[in-house]
Design a protein that fits this description.
Layout lengths: L4 H10 L9 H12 L5 H14 L4 H15 L5 H8 L6 H32 L9 H9 L2 H13 L3 E9 L2 E11 L4 E11 L4 E4 L3 H5 L4 H9 L36 H20 L3 H25 L40
Antiparallel strand pairs: 1-2, 2-3, 3-4
Helix pairs in contact: 3-4
Amino acid sequence: MDQDRAMKNAISIVFPQTRPRYCLWHIMRKFPEKLASNAQHNSGLKSTLQRCVYDCQTVEEFEKHWGLFLDTYNLHDHAWLQSLYSERMHWVPVTTLKEFVDQFDNALRKKVENENAADFHSFNCTIPCISHLPFERIFQHVYTIAKFKEVQKEIMGMICCNAHLYKNEGAISTYHVDDKINTDDFVKLVAFSVYFNKDELEVKCSCGLFEMRGIMCRHALSVLDTQNVQTVPEKYILERWRKDIKQRYTLIKSSYNGLSENPETQRYDQIMRRCCEVAKNASTMEEHCIDMLKWLDIMDGDYLSSRLLTTPSRGNDPTDPTIVSSTKVLSPHVVRGKGRPPSKRRVPPI
């Protein structure tokens, strides 16, 4: 935006958390008009100003060159330049870019910290099961706490579901599942169609919850329970919700987490650099490429087997101090906000 005060005030009212940016092109166009009266405008003033605005790499460098610019051309009393300097955070490239990079780094750092805290919580706390269904324990063992709570809502919703066989053709069965859905004023009965293949352990519901949110719905779980299925097919346990899966971006070198602070990140960086060199050499010939892929598959299998042998299975060892299966994890206390409580607020007449 340009330096329109009305627009700036409107943005601050409608978007109070947003900092508007002035258009640098408009500002630079005004310089000849605002400084045309200066005798040195055509003898170096313009080029000096452009170097100050465009060529500075740090905020300190801009402050230094701006002060030299004012001293050289005796512009300390120029009202328009004073207003520009007071609002330099809105238009000077080096200040806006630095702020963006700092905020972006803070956002990434916060994301990684939140994920590390969630991983620690998932591995050191266990939400108790609410049923004796075998597949609930499978979800409890592999899913993060947040995702397992979502699955438990679907398991609890199985109480309101009634599955009955509609059609059976060999290994393929079609069920109609009646679900009681609670709305604002009443409870309505909705029928969903569930496809089930017994040979391939494939189940699909017309509600589309798995396709939309990546967790199995109460209707599909009801059919699995009706068919006395004791396990969950691996394809219905997505890696993105597993607590034993480490996100790849946490192993990438970043400006806020030095390699020396994380040995795993350091090893990952060394392996990636070496693999890039080997891949470049192996890609020149087909037989070299095939040979490299074969050895990578062998090494990956060996490393995976070694990790499974050295890593204790969580949830199976009763002596593991990190398992708190008998402790129910409660939500934090809700702090009452200011103002009249919702239950005592006046209801409008309309």
